[in-house]
Amino acid sequence: MARLMTTDQGLGLVDADGDNLTLLTLGVRDLGEAFERGLTAQDIAAAPTRERLSMSQVRVLPPVVRPSKIWALGLAYASHVGEMGRQQDAEPFFFLKAPSSLLGAGQPIVLPRVAPDHVDYEGEVALVIGRPASHIAPEQAWSHVAGVTILNDVSARDIQGGQHVAGARPNTSMAKSFDTFTPCGPCLATLDEFASPDDIELTTFVNGEQRQHSRTSTLIWPVAELLSFLSARTTLEPGDIVSTGTPAGVGHAEGRYLKPGDWITIRVTGVGELTNPVTEAIGSRR
Ligand code: MG
Q1: 240 C-alpha to center of ligand 1: Å?
Q2: What are the sequence ranges of the domains in the chain?
Q3: What is the pTM of this model?
Q4: How far is the CA of 26 from the centre of ligand 1 (A)?
Q5: How many angstroms separate the alpha carbon of residue 13 from the centre of ligand 1?
Q6: pLDDT for 285 beyond 60
Q7: What is the C-alpha separation between 128 and 144, in angstroms, rounded?
Q8: Taking the CB of residue 84, how many other CB atoms lie within 10 A of it?
Q9: Which CATH class is domain 61-280?
Q10: What is the H or E stretch that residue 157 is in?
Q11: 193: CA distance to ligand 1 center in Å?
Q12: 82 alpha carbon – ligand 1 mean position (Å)
């Protein structure tokens, strides 16, 4: 039905070719605010239109600029559990990423000064919540989802594992919450953009080399179960982001971490491509 985009010039509808967008007349700063006001993706897509612009004429922002929370799933695919040398968990392992770490498509991921050497990508399919969900059954779960986007769960592996300083503890949320560590977008695709929302294809490239390829049909827990699980613990609010985890092929498995000048593209069929370059922090001494 639609691919919706948040830009510095307002909300837009992305054309089929992905090269242009048509701005919408809606007085909201992002899709999250539209969902908070009770609008559905269908309502937004049907809003009066303004001018049509090429993508180069706008700055693309994350679909939701400042959600109340970003839940992300660890060890979601059996293929990734194996490459990390871990055992499959008894229940989903969700952690929070700071909303302040969100980054728009095309903007640079900055290697943190305090942990620049073990930064890694994780290509993920992410969901944006459209209406509140508390204690929902799996059968209801998809009706609370406004659409699908792409998320890069960037991770400082040394902080994540507690290896950056002798005696430090592992810290997943800290490792994944540095500024710029959550590229998200470029748009939000409504569920009818997919032949099956439970079988979405994901491919990750680093400098054009394919590193990850999987489908959400191979998730250990289906999306509906994941949302039901989360909703029994916190109320999922309009605009909240739930990222479904990464498949095999992260850099950590081979000790290939991100360097300044690298660029990462995550392609999700039905959504598009999320590309971000990598840069070092200004003033870094390496
Ligand atoms: Mg992840």
Answers
A1: 16
A2: 61-280
A3: 0.96
A4: 33
A5: 28
A6: no
A7: 9
A8: 14
A9: alpha beta
A10: helix 157-161
A11: 24
A12: 14
